[in-house]
Amino acid sequence: MTLSDLFHRQPGEPPRRPGAAAPAEQVALAESLLQACAHLLTHRLDPDESMRWVFDALLRAAPRVRLCWSWVGPPDALRIVPGNVCGPARGYVDGLVLERNQVTESGPAFSLLRQDQLVTHNIRADSPYAPWRQAYQQHGLRSVLGLPLRSERSGSRGMVVMYADQADYFDQLGLGMFDSLATLLGAVVVQADQQNRLTREAQQDPLTGLLNRRSLYEHQPPRGPGLERCASVLLLDLDHFKTVNDERGHLAGDEVLKAVARRLLDGVRSADRVARWGGEEFLVWLPSTPLEGARRLAESLRERIGSVPIALPGGEVRQTVSIGVAEMRPDEHLEPAVARADEVLYEAKRHGRNQVCVWRPTTPEAAASDRPPGTALPNNPPDDPELALIGKQLDGQITRWNDGAERLFGYSAQEVIGRNIALLLPADRLNEEQRILDRLQSGEAIDNLETTRLHRDGHPIAVTLSVTPLWGRGGTIVGAAKTVRRRRGTEPPAAPSAPALPPVDTPPVHLAAPRPPAAEPDPLQPTPPPTP
Ligand SMILES: Nc1nc2c(ncn2[C@@H]2O[C@H](COP(=O)(O)OP(=O)(O)OP(=O)(O)O)[C@@H](O)[C@H]2O)c(=O)[nH]1
Question: Is the ipTM of this complex over 0.90?
């Protein structure tokens, strides 16, 4: 095939008469468009970027082309607004909106929507351009080429329209290359459709249509000193939702989740973001919202969801929610704020559900250091010679001393990743402590639970733990355990493993030994804290 064939071949037609344009211009245009195509193949540009890339290549190689624009939309569109406008005569389409009417129907844009064939017109002579002839001439436009684009998959139609400052320019250059270009750009449109659909699917929860967890993480705005100062998060969990599933069936449960999602969307501002966080958990991210405003909104959402029953085919359901509220610090991202909201959500559940709990630092020290409550727990070996000796044996590897396994629940999961935690077992609560440790194990929240029991006079007095929560994004360890249990079967992100404890005199007791699956009632519900 010769270069001339390339330009003048029309599918299904014999080769056309070669145009009058200089071969050098044809070569330059062919090279430029081929390079643009190669770029599209090797770079993941979005459709608009792809169009503009091709237009730039075309305008560089063919200076007589003064203007290009494109449009993609439904075949029955009532208006066409030129997009991706490029070229020195772009002023011609500034603010141009083509409404479908008797005059525009016969114009080039709407005729391209009707037919699937490339069109060329000489503006001076051809009648469809009569209404616009003067404007065209003001911008030095003499001929036009319209390329139809079609996305078979979605049924979208589209067009690329180019204008040159010379009559018959495109005919003279030859139409074969432009026909191939139309095919290529049509493929770009198809790809764009597919990409948009995949992006939508990847960002949305299919049941509720809300954002999913990943897309919320991806779309959080940049944080840091001097940027967005006050933002807050609400973590919502439906109360006793299992009962709805058990008594009304899973489909009814799904309808309740959808209704709650709608009520959440109706109750927030357009700048707020609502995501389905997990099974029956939702996250609302509130930009520019300090803690008190977030608490008020949480109360109104709780009211909006719980006060009006949800109508279902088999009879209505009243669904309440518990909500944890936390403010994001200026320099922090979503994750730690969600962990704090999760901590207080757990409190809201413990205190009877259908309520809002707000995370605030619990001690003056914690408030002063602006750290989560767990970090205010004892950090030094107690004043006991034997325990001090243990601490010495362990050569400072114990990073936290706790006065009981129950206190572990106060830690955020992130805090204990890679930590060695020593638990001091109160003699009167040995069994209770053991039970709590068993629960943590059976909830699969903790990896690498190496425990070493320390005895005095034949009685255990302390357990050292090397703890690595599996689910770094959970809030408290219990929250993490609950999350992991819900998602059992999914692969949680790997957490860094904790350094092993050095051996001590007494034989290690591995609580991680195989155990039967957790039995009902919920093995992860912690017992109430010890009475002082
Ligand atoms: N129908 C339906 N149920 C779901 C979906 N995702 C999670 N669930 C259910 O949500 C329920 C969550 O139960 P639990 O974690 O025990 O919590 P709960 O019953 O709401 O109790 P509290 O949170 O303690 O008030 C389980 O029955 C899950 O099967 C879903 O997409 N559709």
Answer: yes
